[in-house]
Amino acid sequence: MRRSALAMLAVAAASPAFGQAYPNKPINLIVPFSAGGPTDVMARIVGERMSKELGQQLIIDNVTGAAGSIAMGKLARSAPDGYTIGIGHLGTNVVNGAVYKNLNYDLLNDLVPIALLPSNPLLVVTSNQVPAKDLKELVAYLNANASKISGGTAGMGSGSHIGALAFFAVTGTNYQLVPYRGTGPAVQDLIANQIQIMIDQSSNSLPHVRAGKLKVYAVTAKQRTAAAPDIPTTAEAGFPGIEVAIWHGLWAPKGTPRDIIDKLNAAAVATLKDPEIRRKLEDLGQDIPTPAQMQPDAFAAFQKAEFAKWKPIIDKAGVKIE
Ligand code: MLT
Fold it and tell me: DSSP state, 101?
């Protein structure tokens, strides 16, 4: 039987009309960063609850490296049968499209948006050994000690890298960036003062700030985050213009049947309506989208708009990997 006919049979076999309803086995959920980091934590919280809606487990598959571009490549090459989906964010599914010149897949056309997920602003955090007591003192300290300071990111194009670029642009600082496979391991090195600063997703740093293991100076948002009302905004701390939030989302390979996309979307919408899930995510500083914003078509339009917004910024910053 010719290959195309086989591929069509495989896709048809996945659709509800072809025998057992979808899903009839566990679903692989590709996570582009290390375990324990903000994207992995989001995937586990949302994935576990979606499993209840779908009646099948979502199995976490951490595929790390190159700021998530390796994971999205694996997702784009996966069978469009609904049994492999992926979580990503502003960095992996927008900014990487501008940073990586030779991606062997198209972020907008080889991946199908399933649902927009929560977004969280970034926190300017340092190890406890950094002597500054507020953002102005921190910027002065960074400028005076630039050669001695290292900052952690999850690679060029990642959320923590986007944050560092915005921080550099407004504060005029510039320190060495150390890439990790995720901000989960990076924040452990920050606590241990192996690196001194991160512009990190609040969901990753806030628990450590609350535990007194990190110092925080500001949140990169227009308003203070309800989860930590004592943290000033970057504007309140003297540096307006650093407003970055990392939104997450779910995608499937191109060709995944629409009725499967809709079923996965409905499970995600029900998950983010669950009061216990909302409390968990909001406590980490996550802002939860509305069901209308989460819809596949609305999410696709949002992603396209983000592309149009970020590509000129990244091109102007001259950040590119051949
Ligand atoms: C992670 O989960 O490690 C982050 O999302 C990485 C980043 O983009 O900063």
Answer: T
Q: What is the pLDDT of residues 112-132, one digit of tens each?
A: 999 999 999 999 999 999 999
Residues facing 219 on adjacent strands = 123, 233
- Tokens 């990169």 sit on residue: 220
CA distances from 183 to 4, 140, 245, 247 (A): 41, 25, 15, 15
**Among 44, 60, 246, residue to substitute to test ligand 1 (most atoms within 8 Å of Cβ):** 246
Ligand 1 centroid – CA 296 distance (Å): 23
Q: How far is CA 72 from CA 139, 193, 236, 238, 239, in A?
A: 35, 32, 37, 38, 34
pTM beyond 0.70: the answer is yes
Give dist(CA 45, CA 58) in Å, integer: 11
Count Cα atoms within 13 angstroms, Cβ side, for 25.
Answer: 8
Helix (H, G, I), strand (E, B) or coil at 127: coil
Q: How many C-beta atoms surround the C-beta of residue 80 within 10 A?
A: 19
pLDDT score of 73: 98
**Which 8-state DSSP code applies to residue 24?**
S
Pocket test for ligand 1, best of 117, 158, 188 (most atoms within 8 A of CB): 158
pLDDT-derived band at 5, boundaries 50, 70, 90: low
Per-residue pLDDT tens digits for 197-255: 999 999 999 999 999 999 999 999 999 999 999 999 999 999 999 999 999 999 999 99
Can the peptide bond before residue 23 be classed as cis, meaning omega within 30 degrees of 0?
yes
